[in-house]
Specification:
alpha+beta, six-stranded mixed sheet, 10 helices, 5'-Nucleotdase_C, nucleotide binding, 5'-nucleotidase activity
């Protein structure tokens, strides 16, 4: 800003930080405005037009004559900002909102309307591929479902990710997870197209795999299931949390919502793919965990993740390939199958170095049982053969490659239509611990996402030079 300071009248910052109080303060839009407004070198007025938390700020927020504006979500409002301009100085900045219903009778600009219509038609034509000709399953992907509990759609996405990782990554995937906040729509019965899948996964996130120590897997699931609880229909349930992890069929998580946050996990069992049996997690072992690039970068507060990762194709491609040939009958249920209340009915004797539950030595709490009583996934519906897309980028990312990775020493990062740009600081860094949480809107139209400009930029209104 200081480099161009003498050439501008005012600054307009386009950001995607949000003001959700659950987000780290230093990653919030209001924090950015406060810091800028308190900088003694910045005497010229600043407006920050923000997003991410989808907050409706009817009259914005003013900090020392600088303004923060946000319109909400789903094109429900039009943002308007007025200001006084005199003698090269901007003052009296006033954000406000116009409800879209109040402009229904306004005649659109013909040229602009034609551009938007053409873009929409092109996008729909490019995404018209039929993935499932006659889907018989209602896949649940609504906000109140995917952010509070296991759903069949979350299971299917995680299964698709594991199937891809097993076949395409250099190290075969042990299990996969995906954050509920990244799931933005349901899949209805009937014909399913690629357009529908992009509605479900609209951010363009890619599949990624990282190595995670067993103890960090445990910590991650404590974080996943750590949201405050509430009462619904006489039952204790989790409140909405975009970081809730949906899991693939190779892992089981047992928990107790009556316990305090951070101490709810009773047991975690991971499928031994050689024996076909579930085994208690080994807290000292390193697991190959597939997830999306946002989560792998520490998004939604997963500071235990990060470090080098292997990346692949976009999640909607992964899901499309899987759904074409998968046995979808196993998803015809609304009952939890993988994230289960209580404790395992029977559990295999932990191997040396394993722990039956965190904080207890191997074998002290576990009861040895016969092989005939071991929980065996073979009794579950067998996974289908999967036809996967032929290649992936296959690169091992250090998290620092490319121009859009991370900007050192600043809270402003480049973003490109994803939940968050691929920001992967070394494990345990300050950057990683402060990554923002998933946004809170209910759904995002692919057509809207197509024309959405997501990112943080700086727009300087350049003073018109006097004629010489």
């Amino acid at each position: 800003m200081m480099r161009i300071y003498k050439d501008v009248d005012t600054f307009v910052v386009i950001s995607h930080l949000g003001i959700d109080p659950s987000t780290q303060e230093t990653w919030r839009g209001d924090y950015l405005v406060k810091q800028l407004s308190q900088n003694p070198q910045l005497k010229k007025r600043i407006t920050v037009i923000d997003g991410h938390s989808h907050t409706v700020l009817q009259n914005g927020q003013i900090y020392n004559d600088d303004a923060l504006a946000q319109t909400g979500t789903a094109l429900a409002n039009i943002g308007k900002i007025t200001f006084n301009y005199r003698n090269g100085a901007v003052s009296n900045i006033k954000p406000s909102l116009i409800n879209v219903k109040d402009v229904e009778n306004v005649t659109p600009n013909k040229a602009l309307a034609e551009q938007i219509n053409q873009a929409d038609q092109t996008f729909r034509a490019q995404t018209a591929e039929v993935i499932i000709p006659n889907n018989a399953i209602d896949f649940k992907g609504e906000r109140d479902d995917v952010r509070t509990r296991e759903t069949n759609l979350g299971n299917a996405i995680a299964d698709a990710m594991e199937a891809y990782g097993v076949k395409n990554f250099s190290k075969k995937t042990d299990f996969a997870v995906t954050n509920g906040g990244g799931i933005r729509a349901s899949i209805a019965k009937g014909k399913v197209t690629r357009y529908d899948l992009i509605s479900v996964l609209p951010f363009g996130n890619t599949i990624a795999q990282i190595d995670v120590k067993g103890s960090d897997v445990w910590t991650a699931f404590e974080h996943s299931l750590g949201a405050p609880t509430t009462q619904k229909d006489g039952k204790t349930v989790l409140t909405a949390n975009g970081g809730l992890l949906h899991i693939s069929d190779s892992i089981r998580v047992y928990y107790d919502m009556n316990k305090p946050s951070g101490k709810r996990i009773n047991a975690i069992q991971i499928l031994n793919k050689e024996t076909g049996k579930f085994e208690n997690i080994d807290l000292k072992r390193v697991y190959h965990v597939t997830m999306n690039d946002f989560t792998a970068s520490g998004g939604d507060g997963y500071s235990m993740f990060g470090g080098p990762r292997e990346e692949g194709i976009s999640l909607d491609q992964v899901l499309a390939s899987y759904l074409k040939t998968a046995n979808l009958a196993k998803y015809d249920t609304t009952e939890p199958q993988r994230m289960l209340l209580g404790k395992p009915a029977v559990s295999e004797q932990p191997a040396k170095g394993q722990q039956g539950s965190k904080g207890s030595e191997s074998g002290k709490d576990a009861q040895p049982i016969g092989k005939d009583k071991v929980m065996n996934p073979a009794k579950q519906p067998a996974p289908s053969k999967v036809v996967l897309l032929p290649t992936h980028r296959g690169t091992v990312s250090s998290g620092r490659e490319g121009s859009d990775r991370a900007l050192e020493g600043t809270a402003i990062s480049s973003m490109s239509g994803k939940q968050l740009a691929n920001m992967s600081a070394p494990k345990g860094s300050a950057h990683e611990k402060q990554l923002p949480k998933t946004g809170t809107d209910q759904s995002s139209s692919p057509a809207a996402m197509f024309v959405l400009v997501a990112g943080i930029g700086l727009i300087a209104t350049v003073r018109r030079r006097k004629a010489s």
